[in-house]
Write a structure and sequence with these properties.
Blueprint lengths: L1 E3 L4 E5 L2 E4 H23 L4 H26 L1 H6 L14 H18 L4 H26 L13 E3 L18 H19 L8 H17 L7 E3 L2 E2 H22 L6
Parallel strand pairs: 1-4
Antiparallel strand pairs: 2-3, 5-6
Length: about 260
């Protein structure tokens, strides 16, 4: 067993507590934007537009992650509406952030008369890398607790100030954030190895969304969350809906490949 006793507060500035989770999210956003901008330049795209789209995507992504979490825990938030704004207490559905952030980036591209698919393809590996970095903060904060486990690599949260549910505090659990981190890095590697074969424009981004949703569908079985439908947790239902959209689009774009492409 691995005991995690890291203080979730990285530093205190007077009454303000700066948490590792918040720092990890900020670092993940900066990393994703920097990588996307670098890739955009190599692809001959305007880096300024990448930054503009990133502002829309990040703002919408944070909103989408929080909203999907609130929907998932709707009974609690209906009884405690003020808690919706208590972001310091944790609670974000990453898949909701990915989807709403992507939609916002698409809207930005349309308003700026930019080609969406080439920009989305450039951003895909950066998004996967940013998601991986963000999960480091989740591991420290305990806001994505795994299900109880008896494995040698199970983690135990000993501190009372983490975001792990009380029932799981001191209980060996799957290190779910590590599972997702490794999956996200696998997506980065896959896009790097086979990305040049993913033509026409849009295939790389759709492959990213499909792989990420598929990973959430499978890996969430190792989470400790409420079952909502068909024996599936909320994130898995959203992942299934995502796959229902991305798989047909992926197949359609694949058929549009140039002969021999």
């Amino acid at each position: 067993m691995i005991h995690l006793a890291i203080d979730p507060v990285a530093l205190s500035l007077g009454p303000l507590a700066v948490r590792w989770h918040g720092l990890a999210v900020a670092a993940a956003v900066l990393l994703a934007v920097a990588v996307a901008e670098c890739r955009a330049r190599r692809a001959g795209l305007d880096g300024e537009h990448v930054r503009g789209g990133a502002v829309w995507a990040v703002a919408a992504g944070l909103l989408g992650a929080r909203l999907l979490h609130v929907v998932d825990q709707l009974d609690f938030y209906l009884n405690n509406p003020a808690a919706i704004l208590a972001l310091h207490e944790g609670g974000a559905a990453v898949l909701g952030g990915v989807l709403l952030g992507s939609a916002a980036a698409g809207l930005y591209a349309r308003r700026a008369a930019l080609p969406f698919w080439p920009i989305a393809d450039v951003a895909a590996p950066a998004l996967a890398l940013g998601l991986a970095a963000g999960r480091i903060g989740s591991l420290i904060a305990g806001d994505a607790a795994g299900a109880p486990a008896t494995l040698p690599w199970a983690v135990v949260y000993d501190r009372a100030d983490t975001l792990v549910p009380t029932a799981l505090r001191g209980v060996p659990t799957h290190p779910y954030p590590v599972y997702e981190l490794l999956w996200d890095l696998g997506i980065v590697a896959a896009l790097a190895l086979w990305g040049q074969r993913l033509r026409p424009d849009g295939l790389r981004f759709l492959a990213f969304l499909t792989l990420y949703a598929a990973g959430r569908l499978v890996l969430t079985f190792y989470r400790d969350e409420r079952v909502v439908l068909w024996g599936l947790q909320h994130a898995q239902v959203v992942a299934l809906l995502t796959l229902a959209v991305t798989l047909p689009l992926l197949a359609r774009r694949w058929r549009e490949r140039a002969p021999g492409g």
